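Blackboard transcription, Thursday session:
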Amino acid sequence: MTTNACVLIIEGTNCEEEMKTALLEAGIPAEIVHLKQLTGDAPKEKQRKLSDYEILMLPGGWSAGDYVRAGAIFAARIKSRLMDDVKEFVDNGFLVGGICNGFQILTELGLLPAFEGIPDQPTAALTNNLNTNFQCRPSYLKHENKCAFTGRVGIGQVLQIPVAHGEGRLTFGEKDEKMLKELVENKQIIFRYCKPDGSGAEGVFPWNPNCSLYDIAGICNPERNVLGMMPHPERVINKIQNADWTRTGPNGPGDGRVFFESIAEYAKKF
Amino acid sequence: MSELYKKVTDKVFEISILQASDKELEQMLKERSLGLSLEEIKKIQGYFRKEKRNPTDVELEALSQAWSEHCCYKTSRPILERTVLDVKVECDPCIVSEDAAVVEFDDVYGYVVALESHNHPSALDPYGGASTGIGGILRDVLCMGGQPIALIDPIFFGPLDYPEEKLPAGTKHPRYLFSGVVSGIAAYGNRVGIPTVSGMVEFDESYVGNCLVNVGCIGMVRKDKIARSIAGGAGDVYILAGGKTGRDGIHGVTFASAELREESESDVPAVQLGYAIMKEPLMHACLEVNEKGLLTGMKDFGGGGLSCVSGEMAYSGGRGATVDLDKVSLKEENMHPWEIWVSESQERMMLSVKPGNVQKVLEIFDFWDVPAAAVGVVDDTKRIKAVYKGKTVLDFDLEFLIKGVRYQRPYKIIERREKDVEFKMPDLGESIKKVLGSPRVGSKEAVIRRYDHEVRGNTIIKPMQGVIGKQSHGDAAVLKPLKDSYKGLAISCSVNPQFCRLDPYWGAVAAVDELVRNLAAVNSMPHTLADCLNFANPEKPERLGELIRACDGLQYAATIFQTPYVSGNVSLYNEGTLGPVAPTPTLIGVGIVKDVRKAVTSDLKKPGNLIYIIGETKNELAGSEYYRMMGYATQGFVPKAEPHETLESVKALLAAMDDGLVKSCHDLSEGGLIVAAAEMAFGGDIGVALDVTHMNDMRTDYKIFSESNGRWLVEIEKKDKQAFEKQMPAAVKIGESIAEREIRITDGKNKTNLPLDELRDKWENAIQKEK
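(Written on the board underneath:)
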């Protein structure tokens, strides 16, 4: 059976094309699907079921404009119309990935960090970057722990992946310390911002572009099949998409490609 | 006054102009803010005498929009026709030029170019004005059937440290305008998911009363899918898709065609309201409709609203049309028909569709949750009509409405006497720090990082270049628009208003020369240009003279470079209570990159490489950042240009780049040689040692700060020395990259050594450091 990926959008999602391209280049059949196609609100020939897919990707963008808390409206629409399907999808061990706005949506949905199942209320937030500015810049990520999306990335490997967000600072509010301990113990931290040599960013700009807790850039759920991350691996599939390729040469994979190759490999078991 | 008005139907009045006296006419024009002159209303009087009736208020409002400078270019058109629209090229790559131009890219695809100003709205409401500027330019590309792929934003403000007490009443502080405009561009561009890849930020006192916000957009379209801005055929249906029509943006174009005054603040209703999250699905839907071949024409709602779009589509198609105002969906109740007709509410597109396809088109818009409705029918009458509550409230001969008026206004050309200034050379190190720390020269990172410049994943050369965490300015961005091809587009923009103020002709030539240099610096062949002519009140002869001289310069340079102006825009009346803006012919340029994998960036690659200068450095410091800083801004010689020589250099440089000989390259512009060298060193995070002794006989400060045109710095590996010198015999070796993080300048016995990090600190803090 071929594994299919659903790249889910609503109005204002805007990184779906490059997400689809990245999946296709890794050999994963992918299609862009509007939420209304999964909720029965589209013309019959356009309707889809979540159970048609094994991979659900929530790409970046400004869903519904993100005029309120980023990701909140997309999450609310999923919650009201599709949440049972999504829960079943996750329970079946299928993959759910959220990049940037997608990470914000997964957090709003409670799918991350989901310490003890999926709560009704979000337990974490991706809030304003500490310098209050939208940041579009390359960042370095250190791969801390493996999950279903990073099987082919070595532990400790450093990847150069760009960020482009204004609200990317992971926080648990006053529960920062307790929750961080839990994330670490569960090995749920997948990517941390670091310096080019792999040493810790230690909350320092620009290496940590938003001053997130413990330099966290991406986390997974305890079952390791749901991942959210702020940086955009789909933007750097080929080396010429990385920001400094003219210093080293144009040929070869971009640092984000291994992420999609990992998904493809994991998906072989479906 | 009331005796002129006679009620026709609900909210529609007939205005008795046929018998009115000049005084009554003038009074009426003023009361209604129509922006028409007495001469123009008399011409209108003549037309309605022939029609044997009085006009309605809807009709007068329509004429006021259609005949504004903004819509019909009544002053500028004759000048443009003999200059920028008359650049003779051997092989014209332009396929069609309407709201935007479509230009040959390869066998299958064309690229789309559009450039506009959004100056007056941004001066009043910087956030709203700038964001709707983005919205408008995206629609211009969209209506050609093009997928927007890149945005470009040249913006111009007064000095950020302008004293509050000197600000005239009603004028907003440059700091407020600057931050509002940048936020507005970011908010809209980032939300719609089109990368902002290029731009410029200029500061000058002349922009205090009237900031300039120019916006450009590049798109891609399959050549067999180009949409035209026409009404297809008789019987076709007009479908209005997108946002609702409201009272925002009423009289936007007449407002754009007058000077800004203290009372302009009350014109805020003339500023439209943008809504990016309507635009994003509107783009998807329009492109889908076009892809499926369901339309016969498409045009965006810009200045003049429904009036302009329905009239111009019909006129361009050689048709006529009737629009039913009751079918237009409104934001608010009780709007008057004339308001519906001229409202410039955002996010609206007009489609011309065969009757059999209307249902299919409406279904596509419905899928994307974008409101759409049939509002009119195309016919063969060559007239435009509007119906309200069953009654015809507007009925014009299209020729009369659209052709409008033209003026040959008096102009005066002022020749500047050039004279050098004598002064003792100040401390070189201190001068370098000051120039690098000036807002015009210093780092624009605080603006560039606010915009998503790589969404869509096609930005191969980004606006900031070099070692990560140490990146520096590049000359142009490079996009790879097609999945299966390494062919690319280089995008850049330019204008130096300091030069243009002193000499509009040579300033304009310099703008073209610099743009060509920028495009060549990343290894692209300059292909086409677009111009946005921001000038002051053309009713003043000296101001009009500036426009004419600048256009002459634009034509001269572009003809030599064989780069036609495929799209453009004129914005006049950029003049506030503090006087006129410096003449600002903003240009965007597109270059063709044969293979994006051979693109070159500005950052030094490694120590021990050779640095060459291409082009001649002359005593040309008028308008330079160095002279400005010294208080001699208006003295000295304005940089001239030798486009023939620049073009020869471009050809040789590109050949050397294709051979892989050029490791880095940077254009010399504001701040001259030293700024280019410093930026290259910042990006590479290594030092550079320059020896300018044998460059020429000028003083050291002239050598390093001159802003002569036609120049680049390049980095070459020692092993490639011979090969490079053979390719570019005119290049002069002036230094080496060094491991020590220092900038060293030697000129005979005169030696200056400056730590790189100290210079970087000045440069990074010039506007606002990223932290």
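Lecturer's comment: The first helix of chain B runs from residue 22 to 31.
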